[in-house]
Design brief:
Rossmann fold, alpha/beta, 24 helices, 16% strand, six-stranded parallel sheet, homodimer
């Protein structure tokens, strides 16, 4: 059997049923092996940049491995934007790149002055090294099983992340005996059991003696399959919880203990909550600048902060000052903590704390009646999208205003998922993420939101949506392009604009014509009164649709907190 | 003065008049400094990937530095496809990326487990290290002059190439005294003068005693400003020359000593020429696989090969077997060689050799009368584009069939330039290269050719063409998409296609609608009889135009040589 066929079979054995590709000469045997594997369906991206983004969404929705196959040289370097996303968003994807024959690689030549050697050849491994958990060029056909098993193990264990295997052409086509290949032996787990015990004990004591405890849930809760444990802890001790942008969809907003999104673009009252807490237990959340603000010591200034994370370096970084750092798998930590707590234990903390939290939540809704106005307020539109959606829906959002607004108004009452560029909030992600999600969840409908600026960065993939007739409703917010950039240019630089409006290089496209060019049916939402009826009709139909939503081009983003240090604790919370 | 303003002023002093940007928060002070510098005009790309490609074309056309300014995180990783092009194509471009404040960088944290730290932050330097001649994060405001001067020196000296400076936000805005900054002191040249003398002497002896000498000119001839010296050597000794894909535009094809393009997709008779030569002097040409074929020893099997290159590792690589390797600047080498030759020296080699070469060239034209047919033959179309063009024209080509055909039929009789993805022959380059060329040469008209497959990879930049009303005539070859891929899939894999036609994921776009979506006037060339009239009219008008050219979708590429080892020397050459 050819190595290429072994790879395709291996993927099927690992449960991969779909692979994202852009074909090319350097990956010819890999491509051919895919066509020969009936259980492996391929989807063609129109630019390699988007393929890992699709695979990321696929992996996150299916909670399994995503796979990508690309060609050598530019086929590989084109994919780095998507790879970087998967890296920072901790998505387990496996990227294969084709490569020229070994004897024509700069890797084998070992001469640093060679920039390229074979046809469309580049040494991709050092370029992607710091963006992957494992990146290797396969130099021996017989090592293929080892590399594949190691790559999948690393992609999916610990903090997940992308891995990359570069396969030279003569390796792709080499014949191997599949029964005679070296396996990979997974290492023992490296966490310290006694540290975990100690961490659990200290945390329990802190919580049980706290007056205003707060749980902070991050992406690690989902990655670590710890949603049920997180909810159980919160409910057992009646501790309110607040969530990162990434973790918002783990529990519906209406849950009485759910305080919504933390962060500098979080819910209106999150500053007051953080300011008032006396113990914060952060679980699978790295407390990034986007969440904690620029002055880390002002984030929860009166709280003892306990941080539990699977990535040791996240605990060591010069970030939020920690009372206790626990290096652990969050599910194991929660499991042990729940067992450790007295079985009869009930609500901890002051009763007033819970009442204050409930009052804050009630008094400070994100969207109020006056948001229903014309020109359409983005918050209002997105809140209606959320309200009218059902359990069959998946959301994607893009960079800029819709990213912030989505985080602030989506409530996930029906258990919907959101797949977004959680870490970078990068432009151009919504379309490829929607594609990957649609392929992973064929019975779902994707409610994808993008901006007229972000749209352009992966506009070529509109054709992927129409070609595969994916059940994606793409809402393109027309707000005159690059709204967020205009906002900071006006704020910081006295209105000296650059690349952010019609006059400075960022004139928007005619969206109706764009839809036509990419074979997508088009609809326009232009008045707030029509939103509900139009959305209901749109959601009823299957298949792709491009919806232009004409919004206020002076939309302001609600920034309850510029910096936590300037936020006064609400009197309601005192 | 802010560091950002110092940078903008520095660029102007270096002769940079245009900079390619995509604005973003992380580069806000850099962007603002650009708006404040009246001599520096900015052009907005629609995806960062295309910005370095534009800068590459700009640098190559102007023979000066190209400049790019991007934002942090995804803004930086998005640019890597273009960076990789500039790297392998040896283009001197300087890329600035914005970065978060120093204290929020993973670089400063020094913890390998941190994937990202500040807002939209990534440690870009290690990612781009192997794709640049210099890549640094600027950690001290006072070091800015040193870094800028060193970066420009390295970008433009020796073998040119891209450099990258990552500028944290607090450095961008830091105040400096511009008179109190440390300069960069350029190092002494490292070439050995005695090696050069010896190389010149040996080369001269070889040439003077040869029977069938041949010069092989590469991209280094232009990069090293040695076109005149190359021509002088050829004419003085009456030695025929053959050119790499990259060097074809240095001397018109009609020059009696010009044998056209070498390589596996070269002119029809290049195998015979290579087979017959007894001395080959390769100048600024790396003799890549694309040129020399897969069996290096079969390239010029009976010739003593002398290779002159500025990059020492190119001489050491396991490539074409060398009789003599000379590590030198090609201009200095030629200058010395010309001086060394007896002043009265005239034609070297056998008279019959020159006659054979002339006969081969006459007998084997690339395009013959029968190419004028319908559906349009791509070779015929591109040969007419070449024939009707004038000195005001610049060509760009894209990957695949039009890349090969352009290399085989363009004759550059009026001294036209071609800017193409010379090394990778990557998809999606023609549009951004055309944009950069149009901005560099405002009085030129760009004749840009792309395929309906390649078009999609940077389709967003069509709006850049229309927005800036650039004088670009974009010819989009409609041949059913991904023609080259279909050809190899049919050839190697019994027609098992993947991602290369309508049924396998690569359905083409409706090109007329695409032109409309991106605000470009549209025209269609569909019949061979109409080509001349239509082209004449098209070339007369200024401004952008999108021209669909409906070509044969079963077009075969002329491959005179699959492998030089299988090529018999033409009897005409014996």
């Amino acid at each position: 059997m050819r190595v290429a066929d072994y790879i395709a079979k291996f993927l099927v054995r690992e449960g991969v049923r779909d692979i994202f590709v852009l074909t090319g000469y350097g990956a010819m045997y890999l491509n051919d092996a895919i066509t020969l594997q009936p259980e492996l369906k391929y989807y063609c991206a129109r630019n390699e940049a988007a393929a890992p983004m699709m695979a990321e969404a696929y992996a996150r929705v299916k909670k399994s491995l995503g796979a990508v196959c690309l060609t050598s040289g530019p086929g590989s370097t084109n994919a780095i934007p998507g790879l970087a996303e998967a890296w920072v968003d901790s998505a387990p994807i496996l990227i294969f790149s084709g490569q020229v024959q070994r004897s024509h690689t700069t890797y084998a030549a070992g001469l640093p002055g060679l920039r390229t050697f074979g046809t469309a050849e580049i040494n991709i491994v050092p370029i992607v090294r710091t963006l992957t958990k494992y990146a290797e060029m396969v130099m021996e056909a017989e090592s293929i099983r080892y590399h594949l098993e190691k790559a999948v193990y690393l992609a999916t264990h610990g903090r997940p992340g992308p891995v990359w295997l570069d396969i030279p052409m003569d390796i792709q086509s080499a014949e191997i005996d599949e029964n005679n290949l070296r396996p990979f032996i997974a290492p023992e787990e490296s966490f310290s059991a006694s540290d975990l015990e100690a961490g659990v004990e200290k945390t329990a004591k802190l919580l049980l003696s706290s007056k205003r405890p707060l749980l902070l849930g991050g992406h690690g809760i989902r990655l670590g399959s710890a949603i049920e444990e997180f909810r159980a802890l919160s409910e057992k001790l009646q501790i309110p919880f607040i969530l990162s942008r990434f973790a918002q969809d783990i529990i519906p907003y209406s849950h009485p203990l759910n305080m919504g999104q933390a962060g500098i673009k979080g819910v209106r009252y999150c500053g007051a909550v953080m300011k008032s807490a006396d113990v914060v237990l952060s679980l699978g959340c790295r407390m990034a600048v986007q969440l904690a603000g620029h002055r880390f010591d002002a984030f929860a200034p009166d709280a003892k902060i306990v941080m539990v994370d699977i990535e040791e370096d996240e605990l060591k970084k010069p970030g939020v000052p920690l009372h206790l750092a626990v290096h652990a798998d969050v599910k194991k930590f929660l499991h042990k903590l729940l067992k450790y707590l007295p079985s009869a234990s009930s609500a901890v903390g002051e009763k007033k704390w819970l009442e204050d939290c409930a009052q804050l939540k009630k008094d400070h809704p994100m969207v109020t009646a006056d948001f229903k106005r014309n020109p359409i307020d983005l918050y209002y539109f997105m809140s209606r999208l959320d309200a009218l959606s059902g359990s069959e829906h998946l959301f994607t959002t893009d960079a800029g205003s819709n990213y912030y607004a989505g985080g602030q108004v989506y409530h996930f009452e029906k258990g919907q998922r959101e797949i977004t560029s959680g870490t970078f909030a990068a432009m151009g992600l919504s379309i490829p993420l929607a594609i990957g999600a649609a392929i992973a969840a064929k019975d779902s409908q994707i409610l994808a939101v993008t901006g007229d600026g972000s749209l352009e960065l992966n506009i070529q993939e509109l054709k992927t949506i129409s070609y595969y007739k994916l059940n994606i409703k793409l809402f393109v917010i027309n707000n005159g392009g690059y709204l967020s950039m205009r906002n900071w240019q006006d704020g910081f630089f006295e209105g000296r604009r650059i690349g952010s409006d019609d006059e400075t290089g960022a004139e928007s496209l005619n969206l109706k014509k764009v839809a036509e060019a990419f074979d997508l049916k088009y609809e326009c939402i232009a008045r707030c009164e029509a939103i509900d009826d139009q959305l209901k009709k749109i959601m009823k139909e299957k298949g792709p649709l491009f919806v232009e939503v004409i919004c206020d081009n002076r939309q302001k983003i609600i920034e309850p907190i510029k910096d936590f240090s300037s936020q006064k604790a609400s009197s309601a919370c005192k």
